[in-house]
């Protein structure tokens, strides 16, 4: 991180954070999704009948999947993140129907989301925590959101695997590459398909998958066969990273095959696909 970047990070943890947010907002610093996720959301909202509510966790204050909806007063939303700065940004920028809460997410603390969702049908559930994503979605999928957005790890290829559950998961401490986290697209597809969801879209940068509940489909052609997905992560600037390039660095680490009914995700996991 350069000197200016380091200074910005320090500002976010001081009383200067609020003036910094005000300045960025006054300078019309754009708020957007990471890639074209907001545009995909717009398209799917126009095609499917979704309740006007969302839950997103693992968000950045200036950049997240449901950001356009957070600015639309017709929508209710719950934003959760472990960083106080991101929550502070959300509270300053978005309307009163958006609840932002700082929370370190674990399987136990997700009860907060379950309680929120009991108030009505949930339109969108967006999961991006760079760690326990699969296990969080597995716990929350029974609330039956109309649309699920989840970040998957391209590096895992089509192996149906996830990292083992760890309540204190931190990708920066798990491996020096920071690429050991989350679950594969195949793992999420397995979870969603058995819960009556179908894949409909992948973001342009190749890291976010969109699943729609099957009872909402009017046309079979709206589904996206997983075999047609090109597993390549695209970085800002256009450079690409095929899944196999990074896999060789992390393939020796513990994984859980989510298709195995007796998978023990609470311990060290199982080394697979070496």
Structural overview:
The structure is a single chain. The protein is α/β, with parallel strands linked by helices and 274 residues long. The protein folds into 2 domains: 1-30, no CATH class; 32-257, Vaccinia Virus protein VP39 (Rossmann fold). Helix content is 30%, strand content 17%. It contains 10 helices and 11 strands. It has helices at 3-11, 17-26, 37-47, 67-70, 84-93, 111-117, 133-140, 171-174, 185-194, 243-250, and strands at residues 53-57, 76-81, 98-102, 124-127, 147-151, 161-162, 197-202, 208-213, 232-234, 240-242, 256-257. It has a 7-stranded mixed β-sheet, with helices on both faces. The chain has a two-stranded antiparallel ribbon with strand order 6-11. Strands 9-10 form a two-stranded antiparallel ribbon. β2 (76-81), α5 and β3 (98-102) form a beta-alpha-beta unit. α2 crosses α5. The two termini are 34 Å apart. Mean pLDDT is 82; it is low at 1-18, 20-33 and 264-274.
């Amino acid at each position: 991180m350069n000197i200016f970047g380091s200074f910005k990070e320090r500002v976010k943890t001081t009383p200067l954070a609020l003036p910094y947010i005000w300045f960025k907002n006054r300078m019309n610093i754009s708020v957007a999704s990471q890639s074209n996720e907001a545009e995909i959301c717009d398209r799917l909202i126009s095609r499917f009948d979704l309740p006007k509510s969302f839950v997103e966790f693992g968000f950045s204050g200036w950049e997240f999947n449901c950001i356009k909806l957070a600015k639309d007063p017709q929508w209710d939303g719950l934003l959760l993140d472990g960083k106080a700065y991101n929550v502070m940004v959300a509270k300053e920028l978005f309307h009163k129907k958006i609840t932002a809460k700082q929370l370190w997410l674990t399987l136990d603390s997700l009860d907060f989301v379950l309680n929120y969702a009991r108030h009505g049908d949930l339109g969108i559930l967006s999961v991006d925590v760079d760690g326990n994503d699969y296990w969080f979605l597995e716990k929350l999928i029974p609330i039956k959101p109309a649309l699920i957005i989840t970040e998957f790890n391209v590096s895992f290829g089509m192996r149906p695997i996830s990292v083992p559950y760890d309540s204190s998961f931190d990708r920066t401490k798990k491996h020096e590459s920071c690429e050991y986290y989350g679950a594969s697209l195949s793992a999420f597809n397995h979870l969603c398909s058995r819960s009556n969801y179908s894949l409909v879209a992948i973001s342009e940068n190749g890291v976010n998958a969109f699943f729609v509940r099957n009872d909402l489909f009017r046309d079979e052609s709206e589904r996206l066969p997983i075999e047609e997905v090109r597993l390549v992560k695209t970085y800002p600037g256009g450079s690409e990273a095929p899944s196999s390039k990074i896999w060789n660095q992390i393939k020796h680490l513990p994984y859980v095959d989510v298709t195995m009914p007796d998978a023990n995700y609470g311990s060290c996991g199982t080394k697979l696909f070496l």
